[in-house]
Amino acid sequence: MRLLRKKHQFKHTFDKSVILPSLIFIVGVCLLAALFPKLINGYLSDIKNFVFVNLNWLYVWCVTIFVIFLVFLMFSRYGNIKLGNNESKPEHSFFSWVSMLFAAGMGIGLMYFSVAEPMQHYSSEVFQGNHDVNRAKNAQLYTFFHWGIHAWAIYGLVGLTLAYFAYRYRLPMSLRSCLYPLLKNKIYGTWGSVIDVFALCSTFFGITTTLGFGVVQINSGLVTLNILPDASFIYQVAIVVVLVSFSVLSAVSGVNKGIKILSNINISAVIVLMLFVLCLGPTVYLIGSFTNGLGNYVNSFFDLTFNTHVYEEETLPWFYNWTILYWAWWISWSPFVGIFIARISKGRTIKEFIAAVLILPTLFNFIWMSVFGNSAIWFDVNVADGALSRLVSDPDSLLFRFLEYLPLSDLLSYFVIIIIMIFFVTSADSGIMVMNSISSQNAPNAPKWQNVFWGALLAILALLLLNAGGLLALQTMTLLTALPFAVIMILFAVSLMKALVIDYKYYERDVSVSTVPWSGEYWKQRLKQIVSFKTREAVDKLIYEDIKTAFLALKSEFEQNGITAKVETYDNPVRLELAISHDVVNDFIYGVKSEKRVVSAFLVNDENLPDLESKTTYFPKTYFGDSREGYDVQYFTMNELISDVLKHYDRFVNIVAEEANEMFVSSNTNETRGNREKGSSDHGERS
């Protein structure tokens, strides 16, 4: 009986601390939005409006910081650090990598807004007072702004931070890992689970709403082509069932098969479509408008970035409903897109990652939006007599109505529907994979039924909300999650910077200065010293006895050569100083002081270092008469220490002998000496 029970045991890799609260929250919110769509959307819209009106500056500053931070990293000394160990190689070709991150990052939205957004800006009352040319320029400029570097910087920050900690530190592929330098092992506790629950819910809500609106656009296109008689709910059910089934199959097959293949097909298809519209549309106008628009974007970049429209009250509603909504939308999608980008980016350098994520998708988006958006505006002015402008309230069908003004419009419409369907599948399959990863802590060999579970839940809740009219409420809920996550992303940046500084120092640090004069003569003694961590008393004794003996011997030799030297000791803290005074130039100082060092807790618990009993140890550190950094001299023999002092004295003599350094070495002599003596009396007693 026991064997039978084991045989039928239910296997899963879900983390209960993440999956249970997430499902309760997801199902609860979706049911409320479905049962009381108007009421819930009304409450949530009031909250959203309050946040957008009163805290829009916070979105602006956060997104600006993300852009500046990533650009800094790209050009900094940290840019050559790899997302993985130093020998890591990229797992995917450059084309496949860019195709996958692009398909996950923009997806259906690129098709949905390619005509709709430029036309809506062009037709907006905010720009109605401008000349037609300026309205067209503004439409292109703000479309570039919303789909450009700022959007990809949001995705890039999450993806980069997670990829770095997952592949460099070998932490779980989970957002909790992004805060490891700040939380340390607490990421495995309650705080880590809260972050993952937040990421899972945000990902589910974002994908559900996007797929819901994608189904509506596909349905509208099929009706336009007379493939379906109407846009009734039964046809939407059929579309969802078919496409989600393909998404599940793609997710189950893994990144290297279904997702990569579909992404490569997708990016190839959209390039073909874009070239078709470019060649058959107003080609010269499109090339010229793209060039003009790119220059306009570059020139206006900083003004757009920091503009809160506070001096233009008539544009504030537009600003809230477009720019701030977009920033919130990208931020709410960033857990999903960031995790997916991280999963496919092992082996890339930080510089390569940022350059590719910020520049390539942005440039493609600009070309895409110019070709479709500017073609639509040109047709609206020169051919359609404003017919497209009058359709801006129906964005679901606007793209298909635009295609009617191109040759082979029916063929193009079929092709567009196929692309939207592939986008649907690539967004859903990567989303299913990411949600399964979050909910199971990226556990290896997760059962395939878990992907089926997430696909089914997506389909059921999307259709439920679509039928009940609750998608808008869920979309508003998704936007509200962006504000707290924006603050968390700032912490991601702090955490990443802290880790990179340590990383760079670790790999760039040369051997200790104290090891330079070593020979093999005293290797046994030095091995004992290396694995021994000294107490304060031991270091004080070393300074007062061994180092003082060396200094006194050197003082005696100086005096035999006609140079007056002083050896002085100080207490609280313990210091020993050899000084040679000069009337004109600054004094020569070579001192040794007792310095405290806090040791990593990992080292304290290491069984291979049995004599380390606490996190605090001490060592003798040099200091000089200028601001140069000192170093550890605990391993020096007496002769090596004397030799080291003489090296610094030789440096000192050569510097003061150069006429060009005369003003420098003689400046503030008395002040420097007075401050040092005052510091000695304040902080220690001379003995």
From TrEMBL:
Basic and acidic residues composition bias: residue spans: 673-687
Location in the cell: Cell membrane
Alphabetical keyword list: Cell membrane, Membrane, Transmembrane, Transmembrane helix, Transport
Region span, Disordered: 666-687
Membrane-spanning parts: 20-37, 57-75, 95-115, 144-167, 188-213, 233-255, 267-287, 324-342, 354-379, 411-432, 452-473, 479-501
The keyword Phosphoprotein appears for this protein: no
Name this protein carries in UniProt: Transporter
Claim: Ribonucleoprotein is one of the keywords in the record: no
Primary localization class, coarse: membrane
Record family assignment: Belongs to the BCCT transporter (TC 2.A.15) family.
Membrane topology designation: Multi-pass membrane protein
Pfam families assigned: BCCT (PF02028)
